[in-house]
């Protein structure tokens, strides 16, 4: 069974045509991989489907805009993986 | 269909929130300046307007689902297939089904048929945002009433 990071890295590679081996847990989806907000919707859709969750993109964006969070917390892939694991755990709770 | 105003939907035929589906109808006008250019001597409904008709029907579905709390805007068109020509005067049946209700976006499968024959289909991504201003929301509410979209008030008011 692949890890959460592997699943989202594969989704990003396939959705955005980015070489899989250039995607690491420390990659920032926006700053390092150059994924824009529209492409990220495709990624979010694929993640939502793969994990049976709803990524709270609007809440995250609001928190970043309000200075309550940094983009690193949500868009560095190891952090995104952790957020997804939390959402999956909350769904099963 | 008020084609020059980009108001492409004549009426909502059915809205099923439980199944997350909507159907609408629109009659392509018999005459329009658009047909003078598209194409001279062979008038055809432009394919981009067929996609717009699917987007508008999809948008009404999203508006109904969120009870006029937010406004959908077309963001992406995928797997669009324009399968046959549409001529002036044709009655179009447009259907849309919400595939995914995401955070700030929606994915919708839409299609148009005429006399039972599939004309086009596409997967659409809509960004779902706050209404930019109260005037737009009011205009959209009036347009919804005109085409027969019945939207329940939110449960909390």
TrEMBL record, chain A:
It holds the Pfam family PP-binding. It comes from Pseudolabrys taiwanensis. GO terms for biological process: lipid A biosynthetic process. InterPro entries: ACP, ACP-like_sf, PP-bd_ACP, Ppantetheine_attach_site. Pathway: Glycolipid biosynthesis; KDO(2)-lipid A biosynthesis. It comes from the Bacteria. Keywords: Fatty acid biosynthesis, Fatty acid metabolism, Lipid biosynthesis, Lipid metabolism, Phosphopantetheine, Phosphoprotein. GO terms for molecular function: acyl binding; acyl carrier activity. Residues 2-88 form the Carrier domain. This is Acyl carrier protein AcpXL. GO terms for cellular component: cytosol; membrane.
């Amino acid at each position: 069974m692949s890890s959460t990071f592997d699943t989202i890295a594969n989704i990003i590679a396939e959705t955005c045509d980015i070489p899989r081996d250039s995607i690491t847990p420390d990659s920032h989806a926006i700053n390092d991989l150059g994924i824009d907000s529209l492409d990220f919707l495709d990624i979010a859709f694929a993640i939502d489907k793969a994990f049976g969750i709803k990524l709270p993109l609007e809440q995250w964006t609001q928190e970043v805009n309000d200075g309550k969070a940094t983009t690193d917390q949500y868009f560095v892939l190891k952090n995104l993986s952790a957020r997804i694991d939390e959402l999956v755990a909350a769904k099963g709770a | 269909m008020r084609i020059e105003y980009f108001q492409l939907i004549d009426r909502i035929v059915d809205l099923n929130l439980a199944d997350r589906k909507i159907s609408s109808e629109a009659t392509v006008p018999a005459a329009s300046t658009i047909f003078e250019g598209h194409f001279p001597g062979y008038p055809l409904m432009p394919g981009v307007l067929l996609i717009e008709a699917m987007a508008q029907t999809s948008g009404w579905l999203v508006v109904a689902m969120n009870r006029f709390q937010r406004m959908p805007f077309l963001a992406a068109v995928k797997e669009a297939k324009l399968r046959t020509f549409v001529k002036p005067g044709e009655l179009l049946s447009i259907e849309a089904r919400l595939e995914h209700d995401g955070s700030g976006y929606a994915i919708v499968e839409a299609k148009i048929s005429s006399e039972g024959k599939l004309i086009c289909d596409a997967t659409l991504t809509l960004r779902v945002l706050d209404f930019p201003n109260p005037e737009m929301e009011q205009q959209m509410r009036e347009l919804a009433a005109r085409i027969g979209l019945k939207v329940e008030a939110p449960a909390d008011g």
